[in-house]
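Researcher: I need the complex structure. Ligand is alpha-L-arabinofuranose. Inputs:
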Amino acid sequence: MKGNIRAAVKKEWKMRASVFADKHMKIGNIDPNIYGSFIEHLGRAVYEGIYEPGHPAADGDGFRKDVIALIRELGVTIVRYPGGNFVSGYDWRDGIGKQRKARLDLAWASIESNEFGTDEFMKWCQRAGVAPMLAVNMGTGTPKDALELFEYCNHPSGTYYSDLRRKNASKQPYGVRYWCIGNEMDGEWQICGLDADSYGKKAMQTARMLRWADARKADEEGALQLVVCGSCHCDMPTYPEWDRKVLEHTYEEANLLSMHRYYQYDTSDKHPLEDFLGSADNMSGFIDTVHSTINYVKALKRSRHNVYISFDEWNIWSQKTPRTEPNWIRAPHLLEDVYTLRDAIVFGGLMNALLNHSDVVRCACLAQLVNVIAPIMTEKGGGALRQTIYYPFRYAAKYGRGEAVRAIVDCGSFENKHGRADTLNVSVTHDAATRTVCVFACNYAQSAQDVSLELRSFGELSCAEHVCMCGSDLSAANTFASPEKVTPQACECVPVRDGRAEVKLAPLSWNFLRFTY
Ligand code: AHR
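Model: Output:
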C-alpha cells in the first residue's frame, strides 16, 4: 500500500512541472552575436539565394530584396562567409576586380564562378544590416594569404591591396572585426586538413600576423575577434584533445574557440523521436566540456586572458539526402532540407542551450541562412519562404535580449541515445531596457504539461504574449504551395499573481511567453 502511494505521488510530480527563475540568478549578458548566421558558397546559398541578378526583386547589384527583408525580419546580427568547407580551397583574389576566375570547388564538387566575392559580400551586409564575419583559408591558404585579405579589407590605404580595394569597390576600409582562422581543420573531408599541432602552429602564426597588422592586442578595446577551430563535432575521435592542443598553441591570441554541431531525426535510431528530442541536452553537455577545456588551458598557461565560444555552425541537418544533380555545375540544389514541426521543436531547444550558456557563448551562427540547411528558401525567379525553424530563431533574436537568467526546472525526464533529458527545456531572459522577461519553453513530453511558473524579483509582471508551435502532424512543413502551414499560434495569456502563473504547455511543443513589468 505504502509503495502504491509513493508511485502515485511520483506520477503526480511528473505531471506538474515547475520553473523557477530569480532576476538575480544571472547567467550572463546575451551577446547579440549569438543571433548570427552563415552564408557559404555552397549550392544555392549565394547564387539564386541572396544574389540573383535579373530577379524581379533584385536591386541594382543583384541582391534579392525579398530575401533581405526576410533576413531583417529574422533578426540576424552577423553573417559568417564564405565557408565552411569551401573556404579551405578558396583564393579570395579570384572573387575581386573585373576579371573573375571560375574554379573547381572541391568541397562541394561544383563550379564556382566567383561572380560574387568579398566586395559584393560587404555591400550585401550593409544592405541586410548585418556585420560580416570572414573566414580565412587554412587549407590551401597560407598566413600570408590571410594577411593580404585583411589588408584588402581593413587597411585604409597606401598599400597594394588596400589601394586595390579603393579602386575596386570602397574608399572606406570595411573594418571587419570577426575573423575565423580556418574551418573544421580536424575533418578528414577538409581540403588540406591538419593535425592539431600543425593547425595550432599555423593558426597562431596567422593570428599574430593579423594582430600586428591591426596594431591592437587581443584584449584591447575594439580588437579583432579571432576564432580558432575547435573540434568540428563531439563525435570526432580527436575530441576534446584537439581543442586542448589547439588552445595550447593559440590561447593568448585567440578570443573565441569554434564549435560546430548538427542534429538529425534519424529513423534508423532505436527511438528516433526520443533520440532527436535529446539533442539540446547533448549540445549543452558539449558546450560544458569545451568550456572546461578552455578553463583547463587557461590554468595551464597561468593566463588572465579569457577565450569564449563561437558556436559558428549549428542546426538540424538530415545528412542522408542524396545528391540528385551531377557534379561540376554552378549552384546545384544541395542540402535543401525541408524543416518540419518536429524540427522546429528541437531547434527551439538548441536555441535554449545557447541562451543558457550566455556566460561563455559569445557568438553563434545558425548554419546556414538561405537555401542550404536554411530557415529561408527561394525559388529561382520566384518567391521566398520561411521554414518552420525560422520562427523560434526570430522570437529569440527579437526578444531574447539583455541577460539570460538561470531557470530551475523540476520535471520528468526521458531516456535517449545521448543520456537522460528533461521533458521541459527552458531558457529565461530579462531585458531591463524594455522591462521584458521571456520564457522559451519546449515541452518534450508527449502529453500536455501543467507548469507552475515562478518569476521572482522582476517586479509586477503581466503576460503580454504566449505563442506556441505544436500540432498532431509532426512532419508538417511549409512549402511554396502552402507557405504558412506551420507558424506560431497565439495562446491565451495566463494571469500572473506575485510573479506566479500556471501555464499549460501542449504536447511536443515550442512555446514563447513574454511578460512585461
Ligand atoms: O554547413 C555545411 C558544412 O558543414 C560546412 O561547410 C562545414 O563546415 C560543415 O561540415
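Model: Summary of the prediction. Residues 6 and 12 are 10 Å apart (CA to CA).
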